[in-house]
Each structure stands twice: as C-alpha cells, then as structure tokens.
Recover the amino acids of this structure.
C-alpha cells in the first residue's frame, strides 16, 4: 500500500476544504457574526497547518492502484466530515459532537438528514457552511482536487471511479483531469443559472445561494424550518423542481448537449427512463392524493411534482409532509428513494442505469431458461455492457439491500415504530434526508441513540460512495501487510 | 411447443389430484358429513372424466424441452388450484369463488394465508382437504407423477427443475424418477414419525394428521382458530418446532443420512448456515421479548423458538401474536421470511443457499475491485458454483424484491396501513401465511379487494415456483408460434 501517496492526497483534500471554508468565513464577516468568524478562522488555521505537514514530504513512490484509490476516497471523506463538523461543534450551534458529525456527514454525502429542530435560530454563516457541504460533496472533493492539480504518476481514474456514482465510470474526454474540469464547469454553470432564476423570483440572495447549494448537490438542507414550503411561491417551487430534476441527470448527457450532439442526447437511455419514472410518479401520486389530501388536481400536481422530484433525485427539500399521504403514495416515494437519480449525477440511491441493466438481465435470464445455449449481449445506449458489470450490478443491489436490512435491525434497538425505523435507514443510505414517522419532513433525527446515529452516518457514507470504499475501509484485512 | 405432451401431463396431474381428493371423501364418510361427501364425489367424478379426455390420445411427439417443462409446471399448478378450490366453493364453506381459489392456492403453495376468520365451524373433511393441499404442494404434484409414472421420452429433469426450489437442482441418484421416489419416501417417513409423536403427546388422531400435513408442507393451515397455541402444550409445541425445522432442511441432506454419509451430512454447508440462523434468531428474539412481552426467559424462549421456526421454514403456525412484539423482533422475523428455508426442502422464501452464494459473490466482488485480474471460483460444499448460477442468483434476488415492491404498490390501492400492506405481500410471496397488522396471526386476508387477492395469489405461485414458470405463463410471447 502506497501510504505516502494516500497521506499526500488527504493533505490536499484538507487544504481545499480549508479554502472552501474560507467562503463561510467571509459570510460571517458580512453578517457580523464574530463568534463564528473566530470559529471558522481557527478551524481553517488548524486545517492549513495539518495540510502543510501532510503534503510537505513528497511521496517517494508514485504507483497508485485501485486499492489506494478506494482507501484515499473513503479516508478523505471521513476527514472532510470530521473537519466539516468543527464549525457546528465549536460555535455551540450543535452542542453534541456526534450530532455535529452527523450533520456534517449528512451534508457532504448530500443526504440532508438533520438532527436540528429549529434551523432558523442558527448563524447565517453556519447555515451557509452547512449548505455548502452539499455543493462540495455533490460533485466530490477528490474530483475537485483532480480538476485543480495535475496528479502526475497517480492514475486519477481510480479516484474518479470510487467517488463518482454509477455502474461504470466513463471519461468524457481522454484525460481524467480534463473530464473533472468539464464536469465542474457544467456544475458551476447550472448552479449560477439557478441562483439567477431564484433571484428573479424574489428570493433573497443569501437564500438563493444556499438553496442552490442544496439543489445542486441534491442535498436538501434548508435555512427555513418549513423548507421550500416557507416561500409559498409556485414560481420558486417550479424553478427548484426543474433544477432538482436537472441535477439528477447524468452529467455526460449535458456534455452531449455542450458538444451539440442533440440526437445522442435525446436517445440517452438512462435519461429517457429517468424522466419517464419522474413523470409517471408525479401523475400517479397526484391522482392518489386528489380527493384525499387536496381537493383540486392542480394543487395535487403542484405538491406531487415537487415531492417526487425531491425524492427521486434524493434531494429531500419539502413543500408538504408526505407522511400524511395515502399508503400508495408513501410506498411509491419509498421505492423512488431506492431507484434514485442517474449515474454520474450528484444524486444518490441505487441509480436508474443499474435498474435498466438489471431489467435487461432479468429478461435475458428468462429467455436463457428457455434456450440455455442462447447468448445475448446486454446493451446500454447501443454499447455492450461487460458481463462483469452485469454480475457486479446484481451483487451491488443485493449487498445494498442487505446493508439496509442489517442497519434496520441495528436501529431497531431504539424501539421506535417500524415506519420510522425502516424509513430512517432508507432515507439515509439513499442520501435523501426526510423519511416517514418521526423522521418525516416535519420531524428530525435527534431522538436516535448515539449508536443509531453512528449506524446511520456509516449508511450515508456507504450510500454516497456506493458501498465498496467504506466496506474496505471498515475491513481489517486491508490494513494488513499481506498481499491480497 | 409440444402441446400434446403438455395436455397429457396435465391430464395425469388431474387424475392424481382426484385420487388424493379420494382421501377427503373417505374422511367425509367417517364423520358422516354427507353434504361434503356429495361435493367431493362430484368434483372427483368431473376430474376423472376430464383426465380421461386429456390423456386418451397419446402425444405424437415425445420431445420435451425446458420451455414445455416450465409451462407444464405452471399450468398444472393453476389447474390443481382451480379444482382444489371446488370443495370449498361447492360446499358453501367459502361462499366467494375468488376466496375459495385464494384458499386453495394458499394451500398448494404451502403459504397458509387464509381468508377464513373461523375455521372451527367448517366440516372436518373440508378442513382435511384444506390441510392436505399443503402436503401435496409441499413436495410437488409433478414430482409425484414422476415418481409413479415412467415418463418415457420426456426428460423429467425439466419438470423437477421447475418445481423443486433452489438455485440448482441435483438428482440424488442418476435417474430422475428414482430421485423422486426417494424424496417421497423420506417425505412420507418423517410425516408418519410426526403423526406418531403428536399422538403420544395426546393430540387427537385427526388433529395430528392435519397438523402434520401443515408441518410437512411448511404450510400452516390449522383446524384451530388459535393455531397450535390452542393446545397449550409445551410437548406439542416442541415436537412441531423440531419437525418444522426438519422439513426446512434440504432433503438431499437426509439422503446423505440414509446413505450413512454422516461426515458429509455434518459438513453440509446450507444445513449449518440454516441451523445457525434459526438458533441465533431464537436467542436474539427471546432476549428482545423478555421483560417487554414475557417476564421470564423460559417463556420467551418457548414462544420465540416456535415463532422463529415457523417463520424461517415459512410454515406459518403460531402460538403467539408476534405483531405485538418489539420492533427489532418484528423486523428480524420479516427478514427471516425473505431468507426462508433450505433449497430442496418444502419451505419457501429466497432460500438459504442463495444467500450463501450471494454472500460469497459479494466477498469476491470486493476483492475483485482491488485486484481486477484475480479469478476466484465460488464453491458450495467444495463444489464450484457455475458463473451462470451466480449471475442467475443475483438476478433472481433482484427480480424477487422487484415483484415484492410492485405487488406492494398494487395492493396499496386498498389503502390499508403500510404494515399490513407490505407484510401481506412479503408473507404471500415467501409462502409464510401470517404477516403483521390486519394479517397478523390473529387476523386474516378477507378484507382485501378481489384485485388485491388476485395479486396475492399470483405472488404465492411466483414464490412457490420461484418466479420464472409463472412469469413465462403470464408472458404473451410464449404463446406465439414464433421461435425464441
């Protein structure tokens, strides 16, 4: 294991996090929140010193394999979460360290599950940092490091593969670094557009920026207790619905648009399936809640579209408490949580493309039982999917459901009701945020025991990094000297 | 498609069902239930005539492939269920035909989900038939036909594979017919032993026989409203617990015992994992319910052992209403429902061996990410598992969870609570019977709409025949003349 390289990369990650945190420091200046200014300055200072120590000695070996890539990614996510928790804890905004860490991991993993019951009483700069973690975590920290630094020697694809979600990782352009730059350009571009449109709708600048962070990272932290529902504005709801859906799209589809490959864009398989699921779910739920929750269909479609977009993209903003909706709507939303957004987006969940691959594999399996000798390739966007990817996708789904099941059992020790227990795990591992019962959009995660909170934030990391990096970090075998 | 052969086999199946029903006819004589005597006689007469018509003309072609095997199995299960429902419907015991069919399918698939609220008011011969369907369905009707008739020309392995559960189907001896005979001998032998032990415990002969049917088939229909709890006997509970566990074991393990291969028996991987899960679950639940539901640990272990054995083997007998137990116990039982019994047993669920294969595949996948070039065979009982079986197992699990999810959505139209809705589907597709909420051990399935009942009995068939035969029967493509 190339520990020197891992140490160096972790140092770089801490440096960039310090730079990002500098923005919150500026916000604390602007709003005159001097206590927070001190907290941010101190945290940034510690991070810069640590980063200097870690990166001072250049690594001797430059060899860098998948194992190192996975460990670097999982380690650096744990490190940024630890430092990210500091402002919450040191400012006294969140008195318990475990709760601060929960909030920080929830932010970086773009989950948006909160232990806070009243966010409006917190400092603006603290809330700015809380939402900014979504934006940083959405695209990935190492991806940012990759975009900025030329990592000579180290193969950045190992990092990219471990940090960006989906069954396969393609580079948009031959160089991984250029790919990272393009992705960040798209990310920043759409984010700026959303801020602009929210401003036009009359949302204050500060609110527009933080809510864009939450939308872009598909996170869901709001600065209002009533989330987006607090604005009572159809325009704002429509803008955020549209942008949530946009950020749930595979970024390589946007790249096709930029490259003016409109035909390829329109025939992008995952995009079509993703949009179809979103639209059908919006309509089904709207019909289901008309007459029971809302009297008029236009009201129903307004609330169902926002909630479906929010859940499917794993954002977690709310304009209604879907826990009060009929059973069918609740189950459909729970399933959308598992389906999640597109591969290569900032969203969580299992990802639409994995379901497409499995659906095709199921169809092939049925035909294979009839004709054992028939060999048929599975294609996605007319490109054959490697058999290893198909098997890996099946295994991924089973291990994902398995971790969900085991986590649910462990959380059950708290003896809350079944709905709360199961939905908390589903909402955390799929990086949504709100669930049902006590963790519904009007509730929060504060009542869980420390043990349960630890399980839940491990689940958030497992969901964001797609199982294996965290499993390997937790496995004792990786730290042994022996070769695999 | 060889329709002649399929027709002939369906005719044989109907004939054997008529012979089986003859036993209920005798029971109706013994108890002087003349109305039922008439009903059974009439149904048997119709079945014999139909069987004669279907088997009169010998099929011209003897060629018989996987496609025909799957269709024969699924068709014959639908047919036996239809005729099996007749006694309930014609005797007026169950006034609605859909309800009668639900009860019959629930019987043959060894689910044990009932729409009856008071079974004790029904004729003894009707209840005898109801429980007997468990025993018939447990080992499989076609398996019985195979054991009795020499199917020259037709390859009986196609039938065996489609009807007997598990990721792979092995023949115990080179000839499939002999395998079927051995399996039935083991089945009858253990059943007789259970009847004997129940009689010793003071259970009446009739009760001993019907409850043995329910145990052997891992069905769960009882002739008492309070199920096995009605006897208030620790001895009877222990006997039934032990036999439920026995019937959840892979029958090829018993064959190893018969062949005096004790060492192979003790090292049988699925058996060891199966028994470990049963034991650990019994203890965990006993600890969880001590102090909350029961005061003393010996009471807790008494009720937890019975319920765990009943759920894990997918039987569904009850001595306690586990819906009243703490969240942890309820979730653990729900997970045991999915795990299910061993492959090659009469039990349902996904089967322990599939979980063993997937667990090994997950481990290998994690290692493969580290070392993409490493090739490692997955072994079960020291025999390499074919890559097709591994991929098939992943696909099977995903499609199984998928059908569970879609069925839950469809049942949700009834707008019952989430617990009832989800657990009804889980309890039906895994062939358990009782679930939570309205379908708890003290409830029943009568309140569901006709639409929901149809979904649920399709789920039961999908669970019993392990997805593909029923999926193919429902797919329009198979009935087209074109070749696959």
């Amino acid at each position: 294991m190339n520990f020197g390289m891992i140490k160096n990369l972790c140092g770089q990650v801490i440096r960039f996090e310090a730079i990002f945190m500098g923005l919150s420091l500026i916000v604390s200046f602007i709003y005159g929140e001097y206590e927070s200014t001190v907290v941010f300055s101190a945290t940034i200072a510690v991070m810069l010193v640590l980063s200097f120590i870690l990166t001072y000695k250049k690594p001797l070996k430059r060899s860098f394999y998948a194992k190192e890539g996975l460990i670097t990614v999982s380690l650096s996510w744990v490190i940024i979460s630890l430092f990210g928790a500091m402002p919450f804890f040191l400012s006294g905004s969140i008195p318990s360290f475990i709760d601060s860490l929960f909030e920080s991991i929830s932010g970086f993993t773009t989950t948006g599950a909160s232990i806070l019951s009243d966010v409006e009483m917190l400092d603006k700069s603290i809330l700015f940092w809380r939402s900014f973690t979504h934006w940083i975590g959405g695209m990935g920290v190492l991806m940012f490091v990759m975009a900025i630094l030329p990592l000579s020697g180290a193969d950045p694809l190992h990092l990219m593969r471990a940090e960006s979600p989906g069954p396969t990782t393609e580079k948009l352009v031959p160089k991984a670094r250029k790919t990272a730059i393009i992705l960040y350009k798209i990310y920043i571009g759409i984010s700026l557009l959303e801020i602009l449109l929210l401003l036009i709708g009359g949302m204050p600048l500060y609110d527009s920026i933080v809510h864009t962070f939450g939308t872009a990272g598909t996170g869901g932290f709001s600065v209002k207790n009533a989330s987006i529902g607090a604005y009572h504005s159809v325009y704002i709801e429509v803008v955020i619905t549209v942008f949530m859906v946009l950020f749930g799209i595979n970024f390589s589809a946007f790249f096709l648009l930029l490259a003016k490959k409109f035909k390829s864009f329109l025939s992008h398989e995952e995009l079509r399936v993703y949009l179809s699921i979103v639209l059908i779910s919006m309509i089904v739920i709207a019909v289901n809640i008309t007459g029971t929750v809302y009297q008029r269909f236009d009201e129903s479609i307004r609330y169902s579209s926002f909630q479906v977009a929010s859940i499917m993209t794993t954002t977690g903003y709310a304009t209604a408490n879907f826990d009060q909706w009929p059973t069918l709507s609740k189950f459909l939303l729970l399933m959308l949580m598992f389906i999640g957004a597109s591969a290569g987006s900032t969203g969580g969940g299992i990802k639409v493309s994995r379901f497409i691959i499995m659906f095709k594999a199921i169809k092939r399996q049925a035909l294979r039982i009839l004709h054992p000798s028939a060999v048929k390739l599975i294609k996605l966007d007319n490109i054959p999917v490697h058999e290893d990817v198909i098997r890996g996708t099946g295994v991924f789904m089973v291990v994902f459901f398995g971790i969900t099941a085991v986590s649910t059992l462990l959380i059950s020790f708290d003896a809350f009701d079944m709905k709360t227990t199961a939905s908390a795990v589903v909402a955390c591992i799929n990086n949504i945020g709100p669930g049902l019962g006590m963790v519904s959009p009007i509730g929060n995660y504060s009542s869980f025991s420390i043990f349960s909170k630890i399980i839940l934030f491990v689940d958030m990391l497992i969901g964001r990094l797609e199982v294996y990096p965290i499993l390997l970090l937790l496995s004792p075998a990786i730290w042994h000297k022996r070769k695999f």
